[in-house]
Amino acid sequence: MTRAESGRVRFPAAERREQILAVAADAFAVAGFHGTSIAEVAAKVGVSQPGLLHHFPSKDALILALLQQRDLQDEQALAAEFAGVDASTREWLVAHCRRNETQPGLVRLFTVQSAESLDPAHPAHEFFRERNRRVRGHIVRLIERDQETGRLPASLDPADTAAELVSLMNGLQLQWLRDPSVDMCGIFETSMRRLEKR
Amino acid sequence: MTRAESGRVRFPAAERREQILAVAADAFAVAGFHGTSIAEVAAKVGVSQPGLLHHFPSKDALILALLQQRDLQDEQALAAEFAGVDASTREWLVAHCRRNETQPGLVRLFTVQSAESLDPAHPAHEFFRERNRRVRGHIVRLIERDQETGRLPASLDPADTAAELVSLMNGLQLQWLRDPSVDMCGIFETSMRRLEKR
DNA sequence: GTCTATAAATCGATAGAC
DNA sequence: GTCTATCGATTTATAGAC
User: Fold this and answer.
1) Can you give the pTM of this predicted structure?
2) Considering only CB atoms, which chain B residues are within 8 Å of A116?
3) Which of A46, A196, B28, B111 is 20 to 30 A distant from A169 in Cα terms?
4) Quick check: is B7 in a domain?
5) Tens-place pLDDT, residues B143-169
């Protein structure tokens, strides 16, 4: 294995990018950013390491593109599912959870990277800061609307409750990844119904 | 900087070990296992890299010793605080939280390593599996005792509730590390009081 | 679009002197 | 208990050919 044919199996750039992102998603989800080498990703894709860097200029650019793409995809998929539906906070979050239950790889990617990115030197540090801000803001609005319609008690502090719900969801994901027998969404829904009771 | 004096500033083994563990705790908490090099830890301690490896035979041994020591220390400190006290689940867990609030470095170490150790190849994979099992088991017993004394509703499922409380605590830690303005323990206590009602 | 070749740095770990 | 020296493997990234 050295030369013979070289530059074999060419793909359109867009397609090759998707292949790389798919393999990188698994790798970063399992071993984290520093535990994954782009050479290892390239090998699994079936391309040389410089071949990979032709599509993504650096390792930092790769993981950032990966997280942004997957986050956007997931957000849009769920938004489409709830287009025009007047869902309660519980319905919306439980649906999100059920969706997560079908894609453990994606959950693991974001759980691992979320913790790793606490480091200001991590390439996705700002990405996760902003993402967290956005998610909490969204939930705050859901809660406030539920309070107006009486679906949630007015006594709840929207900001604190949003922080609690995000925390519970993130923590349950970690528990579930470590032990899949944990009823992630069942426990979350039980907790949300307790919130609804006066 | 080369030779001149060499082997300077000797320390008793026990003391040097503690110095190494202290520096390693910060490093692994910030950059994770793969993001930290033992040479970097050694330099901050003021010892050569082989000098460090004299006290811990490998990088794996270092982080494992670190996690076990810190976990044991923390567990004993809190156990001493509650010696002979008949604390409720809420009191016990909130006290744990308040203690955590005073040591963000330790919280960060365990939060980051907990996620990173989802990888079966991580040196602390089994450590965190076992630790999680133990912690949840302990909380299950606290809940069952509170149910017997009527401090918690008998309708709660102890195992699911323990998983929920551990998840909420872990998730809040992540939120708090990312944004220290989050009222980690206040939110946790509010959630626990909601559990007690009804 | 993909490769080979290689640079330049860093990694964990060992050997052996003091 | 600590060091220097060094091995061997691995890392990200670039240069340049096809």
Assistant:
1) 0.96
2) 32, 35, 112, 115-116
3) B28
4) no
5) 999 999 999 999 999 999 999 999 999
